[in-house]
Specification:
alpha/beta, Rossmann fold, 2 domains, 7-stranded mixed β-sheet, about 15% strand
């Protein structure tokens, strides 16, 4: 099959992108006073979009900016000073028709001057069409795809294009400067206090521990590198002088983390199930490195700005990697990678990635992060 060693992938391997002059200079306009940003799902995509949300906020410092998301993600923006309002409607649930009617009435009452639709799906376009029927569709509509009703959208990009590049390109066409290199999340004070207590209880000294995100949703188990390999890596890192290995995850990852803790050596601290999503950022801020599968929480951890290695198998790192200057991905050199399958008879894309290859990627991430 021509099997080769896993390959490192980093943003520097992609060709330079040159953007044309903006079609409009919206930040210079004084008549854009109220802005709506739309981003619904999923966890990783919502967190990834916070980088361009930050760019919008910086471009319009005098404007009122609202955010619309789904109920399960509204907590990510609790107390976020960037947004005057965070609205959440379950437009995909069992009562979606009623929720869509509520959405239209709510948005129509606010008379937005600019809508930035970072979702840009058929459903969000339908809702914007219903808003137009009420005469409340603003003059300026930015979308991350070229389709009605958007009049500002990305230029054609080389494929496969990362969604972050599409969103950035759409903003650039509106004259919005895009400089945020990683997600930007507001961390509530109670999350920082909870993490400080955990660090004290488990002896987590800044720079002396690594964070593992070894799971993913149970339905996507092919994206897991495997408990045995993570346990080997934990022992190797402790042997190299890293004092603690912190395991993080939710209900779907409890068994995976338990197995890693059982075989990973005395320095493993299993916090799976003991943290909330906003806690990941302050926990990872003190980490020497973060090592993760392709999972939504890896995008949350990327907001900490620490060196990160993401292990990819059936998903394409050019499309799914978290953003940040210190993010490096590892993937096996196989013809069947990026298959996006849910079942596989051999799972070779993960079996071929050794702890040694991940350690080499750690050195690369450390170098890139400076």
């Amino acid at each position: 099959m021509g099997l080769g060693p896993p390959a490192l992938y980093s943003p520097a391997m992609e060709p330079a992108t040159h953007y044309p002059a903006p079609r409009d200079d919206l930040p210079a306009r004084e008549d854009i006073r109220r802005i709506l940003i739309i981003k619904w799902s999923a966890l990783g995509d919502v967190v990834l979009a916070t980088a361009v949300m930050e760019d919008v906020v910086r471009a319009f410092p005098a404007s009122t900016i609202d955010l619309n998301t789904l109920p399960q993600w509204a907590g990510l923006f609790r107390g976020d000073p960037r947004f005057s309002e965070v609205s959440a409607f379950d437009v995909r649930g069992a009562r979606r028709n009623a929720e869509m009617r509520r959405w239209v009435a709510h948005m129509a009452a606010r008379r937005y001057d600019l809508i930035v639709d970072l979702q840009s799906t058929d459903r969000s376009r339908i809702l914007l069409g219903l808003l137009a029927l009420r005469g409340r569709l603003p003059r300026w509509r930015i979308g991350n795809r070229r389709a009605a009703p958007y009049n500002l959208y990305p230029k054609p990009l080389p494929q496969p294009a990362h969604i972050h590049e599409r969103m950035r390109s759409a903003l650039q066409g509106a004259g919005i400067v895009t400089r945020s290199e990683r997600p930007v999340l507001h961390v509530p004070a109670d999350s920082r206090a909870r993490v400080a207590a955990l660090a004290a209880a488990h002896g987590l000294a800044a720079g002396d521990y690594a964070v593992f995100l070894p799971g993913c949703q149970a339905a996507g188990f092919l994206k897991r590198w495997g408990a045995e390999r993570y346990a080997q890596l934990a022992r190797r890192l402790q042997g190299a002088g890293i004092g603690r290995i912190v395991l993080l995850g939710g209900p779907d990852e409890e068994e995976e983390c338990r197995r890693i803790a059982a075989g990973g050596g005395p320095g493993v601290v299993n916090l799976c199930g003991e943290t909330r999503v906003p806690d990941l950022v302050p926990l990872c801020e003190g980490a020497w490195v973060v090592i993760a599968n392709d999972t939504g929480t890896a995008h949350v951890a990327a907001a900490a700005g620490r060196p990160m290695v993401v292990i990819c198998g059936p998903t394409d790192p050019r499309r799914v990697r978290p953003i940040g200057p210190g993010v490096v991905t590892v993937q096996a050199d196989l013809p069947c990678v990026n298959c996006y399958r849910k079942t596989c008879p051999h799972h070779a894309c993960m079996h071929l990635i050794t702890p040694e290859r991940v350690l080499a990627a750690v050195a690369e991430a450390q170098s890139r992060a400076g």
